[in-house]
Design a protein that fits this description.
Blueprint lengths: L1 E5 L24 E4 L3 H10 L3 E5 L1 H5 L6 E8 L2 E11 H6 L4 E6 L6 H5 L4 E9 L7 H7 L4 E7 L2 E6 L2 E6 L3 E5 L5 H11 L6 E3 L3 H22 L5 H4 L1 H20 L10 H10 L6 H7 L10 H10 L5 H15 L2
Parallel strand pairs: 1-5, 2-3, 2-6, 3-5, 4-10, 6-7, 7-8, 11-12
Antiparallel strand pairs: 4-5, 8-11, 9-10
Bound molecules: ketopantoate.
Length: 332
């Protein structure tokens, strides 16, 4: 069944006005979204004509209209089509567009290549919405005066093909500052990303949320890739579950030491909860492995091991997992 929810021509592009904007002009705020994967497309479908999806130049030109795309979003076997604004970094640059609000939904390992030629307003706003940690320094280096935020979402989505995504589970999205923006400004950015169907909630401790997600990803993602199983099987098969517990023990030590979780909290119940609620899903790292794509391991276990080293906390199980994934990827 196809239900055309939004098929009007998107309102004329606001790009020409954008270099005058400073983030306080709510009504004219326009988001540019980098990364046309499942989450980037999902966010674009919520924001509709308040956003432009930035595509790779070849992908933009191969579309019927290189200024718009039709995105299909599948929920419970029902497809909704959205007509969305699309552009590319090259096209924006040719039009001298300065980006004021950038939402980065690329894979963590593709961030640097994606931001390289972005013409960002010097005091613009950048929101990172991706798996893993470790890209904050990169953004500070490229955009020293911009305000940088991180968002974390529990929406479950995957890509069927280009511009066709499946929204498998409705989730919640949280946002907080990564470089000291005050509460009022950060709340305003959360509001600017919010829509009726997707509220983005301000989080005054986004770092804690990112670390907990990182810990969960450190367990589920590489183990499902190594054992080639869905998330739920990690809890069912004794050999896999023993491995889960070993990784969690090391993660507890690191997260206790950083005060991310209290001494009487553990990562294992959080991992179990997510593995159960996403039992039939294939993790993003397992999907990367299936398609022989480089994974986000540097930003998941890589980041964890680096932080653990600085804290002098040995993490041999996590280090071994890191090596195993790297060895798998070296054979692609
Ligand atoms: O975030 C995920 C991922 O696959 O990257 C989990 C939580 C493991 C869900 O599959």
């Amino acid at each position: 069944m196809t239900n055309l929810e939004h098929n009007s021509k998107p309102s004329s592009n606001t790009e020409a006005n954008e270099d005058k904007m400073d983030g306080t002009e709510t009504s004219r705020t326009h988001w540019h979204i980098l990364g046309a994967g499942a989450i980037g497309c999902l966010m674009a479908s919520y924001l509709q004509d308040r956003s432009t999806l930035l595509l790779k130049e070849n992908m933009r030109q191969t579309n019927a209209s290189n200024q718009q795309i039709t995105l299909s979003v599948e929920r419970n076997k029902q497809i909704i089509e959205y007509t969305l604004l699309a552009s590319s970094v090259e096209h924006c640059n040719a039009n001298h567009t300065k980006i004021t609000h950038l939402l980065i939904c690329t894979k963590a390992n593709q961030t640097e290549a994606a931001i390289q030629n972005i013409n960002m307003h010097s005091t613009g706003h950048i929101v990172l919405l991706q798996n893993g940690m470790g890209n904050i320094n990169l953004l500070k280096q490229y955009f020293p005066k911009c305000s940088i935020y991180a968002a974390s979402t529990s929406h479950g989505a995957f890509k069927r093909s280009n511009f066709h995504i499946v929204h498998a589970g409705i989730g919640q999205t949280y946002l907080g500052s990564l470089n000291g923006s005050n509460q009022t400004q950060t709340k305003q950015i959360a509001a600017l990303l919010s829509t009726k169907k997707n509220q983005v909630t301000y989080d005054d401790n986004i770092n804690q949320r990112l670390w907990k997600k990182l810990a969960i990803n450190c367990v589920i993602n590489p183990l499902t890739a190594i054992y080639q199983c869905n998330n739920g099987e990690l809890l069912k098969e004794p050999k896999y579950y023993t491995h889960v517990k070993k990784l969690c023990k090391e993660l507890d030590t690191v997260l206790h030491s950083l005060n991310i979780i209290s001494q009487n909290e553990n990562i294992l119940p959080m991992v179990k909860n997510i593995a159960l609620s996403t039992a039939n899903n294939l993790s993003s790292m397992y999907q990367d492995k299936k398609h022989k794509r480089p994974s986000e391991i540097d930003y998941i276990q890589g980041y964890l091991c680096q932080q653990a080293k600085q804290l002098n906390i040995p993490c041999p199980e996590n280090a071994a997992i890191f090596t195993t994934i790297k060895e798998i990827e070296a054979k692609y």
